[in-house]
Design goal:
Blueprint lengths: L9 E3 L1 H7 L3 E10 L3 H12 L4 E4 L14 H8 L9 E2 L26 H10 L7 H15 L2 E2 L6 H14 L4 E2 L1 E2 L26 H7 L3 E3 L2 E9 L2 E10 L6 E14 L5 H8 L15 E2 L2 E7 L14 E3 L7 E6 L3 H4 L7 H9 L4 E8 L6 E6 L2 E8 L3 H20 L4 E3 L30 E2 L3 E2 L25 E3 L14 H18 L1
Parallel strand pairs: 1-8, 2-3, 2-11, 3-8, 4-18, 11-22
Antiparallel strand pairs: 5-7, 6-14, 9-10, 10-11, 12-21, 13-16, 13-19, 13-20, 14-15, 15-16, 17-18
This protein binds flavin-adenine dinucleotide and iron/sulfur cluster.
């Protein structure tokens, strides 16, 4: 703890630095880079322990008045590279936030604990001693209590979510309402473009304000560009002020701290390490082992009106197929984004839009452990070069998940589905027709896919020669440098990652508290 106790909490924004008009230096006990779910939990927990914490975020804060229920405008303002970031190798769009709160501001608030077998696999394959579900449950509990995480009640499900349950029940597939970090959700289905009701407990209205009350300082519009070091010790971070939405850079800054926590996300943290002289990379694993949960969405049209505008964005799910390699869930998004999944042009597309009130969209996320890639820094840019290759066996898992979704749609009474698989008809009209999905020969590029779940680029491993951080998130090659984002997952977790990232961050903060 600092001898002076906690400082005065505050949030600084771009106009503050523009007004000051000069380079600046700061000092703290701990500097945390990145205000997503992981960085926010670490910030709060360390501020609560009385440490002087500075949380640095490149993106700006958003107010409810700034949210627009327009997919394209929202993506351009809240997401990296205007929402157009993608992989090379196998092409896949990937969605990542740039805003106070990170992904939590624009995600659908699904909070899912991976079952025990996932963590058992992590422990066995990656030499981990204390990362079982039982080890992490107290941390899951602490985060869940703080955020009021609870199952979505039927009153805000709306027909498009409840029909998923109907279809699952008819086929004997276990399903459940999704646990979410919301308080007073109205079921407006617009989580991706920002919750105007402020029901979603994103970090900017939950952990971060509480951390500020405890003295944490939150400096937004600061792009960290490197970690300062001396031997095996990190000395702080340096970078530049960036203007929101334009990326124009202004003054330089340095923040000196005794402890440095990188929580800039699975793509940005390895780039920061690489740009700082290939830091923490004696293992050669920084930026390697990249994994995703590629998602496939299927749209189904029902005979009856579903008023799909109403209902939790993603509030029903089935974990029944996790061991086969996929998870099923419901979803909704702004119609401009849904249009990507609508085949046809001209009159045909207009007809599909006219069917939107009778349409539900359900998706699957796949555990593609065999499909890996890498993240490399680029010259004169903080944006990463991302390479990734979808493995043929993982493609089969994705196709199988689409087939199961088709079966659930027809069991729920859909009159047709749009499977979104190249080489197959645009529409399938019955479970029998959907049998073509069973053995369809599939190749890369045949599936419409995207991902917002990214992992493993600074993976946790008990053996310092094979991973970047230990079980507390401390870099094996450093005494005081920690990583706290989904990059430390040793493998994709098979379920939505936010809650696991927060639980691991909670454990990390506990370990840091002991050491500081
Ligand atoms: C549209 C969408 C929907 C999703 N839905 C769900 C869901 O319902 N449930 C779920 O579990 N998961 C969901 N996810 C995934 C989840 O949001 C992420 O896994 C989670 O946010 C990762 O947390 P993080 O702390 O690792 O990183 P992030 O949330 O990515 O936060 C990293 C932060 O670091 C900042 N940063 C990056 N580089 C720098 C730099 N150089 N200097 C300063 N700051 C920097 C970024 O701007 C960002 O704010 C979704 C994601 C998206 C995009
Ligand atoms: S469904 Fe609507 S009200 Fe509920 S959390 Fe999402 S955006 Fe907020």
């Amino acid at each position: 703890m600092s001898p002076d106790g906690p400082g005065t909490g505050e949030v600084r924004v771009f106009s503050d630095y523009a007004r000051d008009g000069r380079d600046f230096n700061e000092e703290a006990d701990v500097v945390v880079v990145g205000s997503g779910p992981a960085g926010s939990v670490v910030t709060y927990e360390l501020a609560k322990a009385g440490h002087r914490v500075i949380l640095v975020e490149e993106g700006p804060p958003f107010t409810p008045q700034e949210f627009r229920a327009d997919g394209n405008i929202s993506m351009a303002r809240t997401m990296r590279e205007g929402g157009l970031r993608s992989t090379t190798g196998t092409f896949m769009p990937i969605l990542q936030a740039i805003c106070l709160g990170g992904g939590s501001l624009i995600n659908s608030a699904m909070c899912v604990r991976p079952p025990a077998f996932i963590f058992d696999q992590w422990c066995t394959r990656f030499d981990l001693d204390r990362t079982t579900r039982e080890d992490l449950d107290p941390h899951f509990d602490a985060v869940s209590e703080f955020l009021g995480i609870a199952p979505t009640p039927d009153e805000v499900q709306g027909p498009r979510n409840l029909l998923f349950r109907t279809g699952c029940d008819a086929l004997g597939i276990p399903s459940e309402p999704v646990d979410r970090n919301v308080r007073g959700c109205r079921g407006s289905g617009e989580c991706y473009t920002g919750c105007r009701a402020r029901a979603k407990q994103s970090m900017d209205i939950s952990y971060i304000p509480e951390a500020i009350k405890l003295g944490a300082r939150v400096l937004t519009s600061l792009q960290v560009q490197g970690v300062l070091r001396e031997g095996r010790r990190a000395l702080g971070v340096q970078g530049q002020v960036v203007e929101p939405f334009t990326g124009r850079t202004l003054h330089a800054f340095k923040i000196r701290a005794r402890w440095v926590v990188l929580a800039a996300g699975c793509m940005a943290t390895p780039v920061l390490l690489q740009k700082s002289g290939d830091l923490a990379n004696e293992s050669g694993q920084v930026g390697q082992n990249l994994q995703f949960h590629p998602g496939s969405a299927v749209a189904g049209v029902f005979p009856q009106d579903l008023s799909p505008i109403f209902g939790g964005t993603q509030s029903y799910q089935s974990l029944a197929f996790l061991e086969e390699g996929f998870k099923l869930e419901t979803m909704w998004s702004a119609p401009a984004a849904l249009a990507v999944r609508m085949p046809g042009i001209g009159a045909e597309l207009v007809k599909r839009f006219s069917e939107l009130p009778r349409t539900a969209v359900w998706d699957a996320i796949a555990s593609t452990h065999r499909s890996t890639g890498s993240v490399r820094s680029r010259f004169r840019s903080m944006n990463p070069a991302i390479r990734w290759q979808l493995h043929p066996e993982d493609m089969k898992i994705m196709l199988r998940s689409i087939h199961v979704l088709a079966e659930i749609f027809f069991a729920a009474g859909a009159e047709k589905i749009m499977p979104g698989v190249h080489g197959l008809p645009d529409e399938l009209h019955s479970a029998e027709e959907a049998e073509v999905l069973r053995d369809h020969p599939i190749r890369p590029g045949d599936l419409v896919t995207a991902s917002s779940h990214v992992f493993c680029t600074t993976r946790m491993h008990g053996d310092p020669a094979q991973g970047v951080v230990d079980e507390d998130g401390r870099c094996h090659d450093f005494d005081n440098l920690y990583i706290a984002d989904t990059g430390i997952f040793p493998r994709c977790p098979s379920v939505n990652p936010m809650l696991t990232a927060m639980a691991l961050a909670h454990r990390q903060a506990e370990a840091l508290r002991e050491r500081i």
